[in-house]
Amino acid sequence: IFAGGIMIGAFKMMECPYWWPSFPQTTIIKDKTADWQTYRNEEYGFEIKYPEELSPEQGGPLYPEVRNVFYFGGPPYELSISLAVVEIAEGETCPLEEYLHPFTPPTKTEIVVAEEKAVRHENEYETSGYWERGVYVEAHRRRAVTVDIKHEGKIYRFHLNRRTEDKVFKEFNQMLSTFKFIEDKELTLEELKNAEYYTTVYK
Hints:
- It contains 3 helices and 12 strands.
- By secondary structure, the chain is α+β, with helices and mostly antiparallel strands.
- A hairpin with a 2-residue loop joins strand 8 (about 130) and strand 9.
- The protein is globular.
C-alpha cells in the first residue's frame, strides 16, 4: 500500500504543470547582411555594405571624374542605388527636383541613419511607354526614394528610382542599416611615437 501511494504521488507530480521546468524557445535571426561586401571610402568618411549582385563604382561609367557620386549597381548603365556627397553651407538645403517625380507630392519621414537624423522623401508615379537603347519599355509604375543624412557640413544623399515591385527596395533599406561614418581614431602615445618615427625616417 505504501509503495502504491508513492507511485500515485509521483504521477500526480508529473501532472502538475509546475513540476517540469519550461524554457523559452530561442529564435536565431540571421543577419542577412553578414555575408555582404563592405565598401569603405576614406576621402568622404563612410562605409557601407552591399549585396554580391551589386558592385560599387565611384563616378560611374559616364562620369568617372566625378568624385563625390557613388553607384551600386549591376552591369554598366543598369545602375540601381546612388549616393551623392554634397558640401553645403549652414542653413542650406539640397534641391530634390532632380530626384523625385515633379508632379507627385512626396511623403516626408524623419528617420535615423548612422546615429544621425535623416529625412526620407518618397513618391510613386506612372510612366508612359518609351524607347530606351533600342528597346521599347511598356508603361509601368515607379517609385523614387531619397534619403538625406546631414553630417559635418555635408549631405549624404541616397537615391533610388525603380519599378515599384523591384526587390532592390528591400536591399536599399538593408544597405542603409549598414551605413556608418568613419570616425577619426585617437592614437595612443605608443602609436604617436611610431608615427613620428616613421615620419622622420621615411619622409
